[in-house]
Amino acid sequence: MIKFERFEWVAIAIMISLFIFVGIIQGWSVSLVILNMCIISAIMTMGVNISWGYAGVINFGVMGFLAMGGLAAVIVSYPPITESWQVGGRGLGISFILLVILVIAVMYINKIVKQKKNRYLLNTIVIFFGILVIRHFYLNATDNIEDINPAIAGFLGGLGLPIIFSWIVGGFFAAGVAFIIGKVALGLRSDYLAIVTLGISEIVVSVLKHEEWLSRGVKNVIGLKRPVPYEIDLQNTDWFINLVTYLNSSKLNNIIDPTEKQQFLNNLIIDGSGIFVKLSYAILFLIVMLIIFYFANKAQLSPWGRMMRAIRDNETAANAMGKDVVKQHLIIFVIGAAIVGVAGAMLVTLDGLFTPSGYRPLRFTFIIWIMVIVGGSGNNLGAIFGGFVIWFSWIEAAPLTTFIINQLTAGLEPTNALKLHLLDSVPYFRYLFMGIILLLILRYRPKGIIPEKIRHS
Amino acid sequence: MIDFLNSIVVLLNFIIIPGISYGSQLALGALGVTFVYAILRFANFAHGEIMSFGAMITILFTWFFQSQNINLGIFPTALLALPIGIVATIILCIISDKFVFQYYRYQKSVPVVLAMVSIGVMFVINAIIRIIIGTETIKFSDGQKFIMKAKQFKVMTGLNEGLALKSSQVITILITIALLTFTFWFLQKTKTGKSMRAFSDNEDLALLSGINPDRVVFTTWIIVGVLACVAGTLYGLDKSYKPIIYLNLVLPIFASAIVGGIGNPFGAVVGGYVIAFSEIMVTYAYKKFFVYLLPSPLEPTGLVQLLSTDYKFAVSFSILVIVLLIRPSGIFKGRVL
What we know:
CATH topology of the largest domain in chain A: ABC transporter involved in vitamin B12 uptake, BtuC
Low-confidence stretches of chain B: none
Structural class of chain A: mainly alpha
Radius of gyration of chain B: 21 Å
CATH topology of chain B: ABC transporter involved in vitamin B12 uptake, BtuC
Strand content of chain B: under 5%
Mean pLDDT of chain A: 86
Number of helices of chain A: 19
Shape of chain B: globular
CATH class of the largest domain in chain A: Mainly Alpha
Largest sheet of chain B: 2 strands, antiparallel
Distance between the termini of chain A: 16 Å
CATH architecture of the largest domain in chain A: Orthogonal Bundle
Helix content of chain A: over 70%
Strand order of the largest sheet of chain B: 1-2
CATH architecture of chain B: Orthogonal Bundle
Number of strands of chain A: 0
Oligomer: heterodimer
C-alpha cells in the first residue's frame, strides 16, 4: 500500500486548501474549473514523469500525444458520416493498402540489398514513385470527402460511441505514434531526443491541422457528446430540483414571498447545475487519476521499476546485467506517451471541442515539463503536486499580477501610459512567473519540491 | 529559348532568391546554436527568443530614429539601429550566463539539465518581449523596398516572367556573407578563435595548456549575441516581426544545426541552406515551371506540388529525422569547432 510521509500529507493539504480558498474568494464554479484542468495536467505530468523520472527517457512530444488523444475523442464519439464513407472510403482504403505495400517493399529492400549506396538509391526511387501512385488515389478520395457539406461535415466522422471510451482509445493512439517515434529516435542522446520528439510532435499536429478528411483541420470539431448530463436537462429534472431545494432548505424557508422564493430557487438551480456538471467531471477525472497513480506507484515499487532505475542510473551496468536497455526504453516511452494520450482525450472531453490549431508547444509541452521539474521527477505524488501547483499559478497569475501592478502604480494617474501598458500586458506575466519558478527550482531544489524517495531495498 | 529563360526566371524568383535569403537567416541562427553547443555543450532552447529580443531592441531604436527623422535614405533605418540591438543582445546573453548558466557550468551539470535551464530562460525572455512590445505583427522595414520590381524586369528583358528583388533580401545576403567571413576568419586566424576551437575539441587539454575557460565562454556569448541579433533582425526585416514566430523558428534552426553536423560551424551554415531550400522546394507548385519547359501536349494539369505549403515546418523535421537515421553525425561530421 502507498504510505505518505508527513511532508507529503502537507503537500496534499496545501492542494486541497488552495481550491477551498479559491472557492470561497472567487466562487465554487471557478474553483472547479481550475480543479478539472489541474487533474488533467497532473495526469499528463505523470505520463511524462514515468518516462523521465523512472528511466531518464526524455519526451518532448507531449503536444503531439495530447493531440492524438484528442483525435481519439473525435473518432470515438462523433456520429459517423455515411456519405463521406461512400464517396471516399474506397479511395482511402486503396491508398492505405498501397501504403502498407510500400512499407513492406522498403523493408524488403533493406533486407535484400546489402550495399549501402544501392540501398539508399533503390529506397528513394521506390518511395518516390510509391508516393506518386498513392497520392493519385488519396487526393481524389480526400477531395471528395472534404466537398461533402463542408460547413458542418467534410470529414469522415467517427464511430458514435460514448466519449468515455476514447480515454482508452486515446492512450492506444498515442502509444502507436510513440512506438514509431521510439523506433526511430530512441537511440539518440538525450538532448537530441528532446529536439527530435519536439519536432515530430509538430509534424503530428500539422498533419491533424491540415488533413481535413480526418479531423476537420483548422475548421475544428465542435459539439462532442458529454459523458455527464447537460445543464439544461438538469434544470428540468425533478430529483435535481429536489436536491437543490433540500440543500438550501434553511435559506429558502426564510423567504416568505412565494414569487421571490421561486426566483431565488431558479437562480440556485442554474448555479447548481453548472457546479454539478463540473463536479461530475471532477469525480470522473479523479477516478482516472487515482487509478493511474495507483498503478504507477505499484510499477515503481516492483522489480520492473527497480530495473528502470538501474537503467536510468547506469545504463552500461544495467546492460551488463543482461537487461535489454533499448527495449525497456521503448516500452517506458510508449507507456508514458499512452498516459499523456489519455489526458489528451480527457482534455477534449472536458472542452467538448477539438481545435488542432490550439496545440502549441509552449502551452502543451514546456508547461508540462515545468510541472514535472517543479513537482519532482521520479515521484508520482510530486508529479501530481507539480501539475496542480503550476496549473493553479498559471491561472491565478493574471489576477495576482493585476493586483500587484495596481498596488505598484497606485500613485500614478489612471490614464498614465505606463500603467495602461502594464495592465494590457497582464496575460504575459504568467510566462515570466513560469520561467522564474523553473529557474529557482532548478537552482535551489533540483530534485523538485517532493523529491524521489531513495529506497534501499 | 525564351521559354527556357522564362522557366529559369520562375525558379530564380520563387525558389532560389527566397531560398538563399531564408537560408541565410537560418544559417546565422544555426551558427549561434552550434557555438553554444560546441563550447557550452548544451542545446539552447532560448536561442529563438534571444533572436527575437535582438530584433525587438532594433525595432525600438528604429522607431526612435524614425521619430527623430534620422534615416539612411534608401536603406532601411533598422540598419542604423542594428548595432545598438547587437550590444543589447550581447548584454542579455552575458547577464543570462552570469546569473543562470554559469552556476550549472561550474557544477558540471549534465547537458539535459542545462537544456531545461535554457527553457526557463526562454520563458523569461519570452515574457519580457511580450510585456515590452506585445504580440502584434510589426513591419519596420522602410527606405526603398525593391531593388528591382517584377515589372521593371519584364520591361528590361522582354520576358513574360518578372523577377523581383527585395532590398531586404539583398541586405540579408550581403550581411550574411560579411558575418560568416568574419566568423570563420576569427576562428581560424586569431588567438582567441584558436583557443575556442581547442576548448571545443578537448576541454581538459585546453585547460591544461592554460586557456582561460571564462574568457572562452565570454567570447562565445559575444559571438552568439551578434549572430542571434543579426539573424533575428534580418528575419523580421524580411518577413515582418512577430514575437510568436521565433519560437517556431527554433525548430528549423535546430534542424539546420543537426543536419549540418552539430558543433561544426561550417556544417551549420550548410545545414541552414539545405533546410531552407528543401522547405521551399518541396512545397513549391512547379506547374508554371513545367508549362514553360515542356511542349504543350506534355503540360501538367495539376499543381505539381509534392506537399502543400501547410507542411513547411514538417519538411524540415522529416529531413532532420532522415539525416539522423542515415548519418547521425550530420552531413559534415559534427562535434569539432
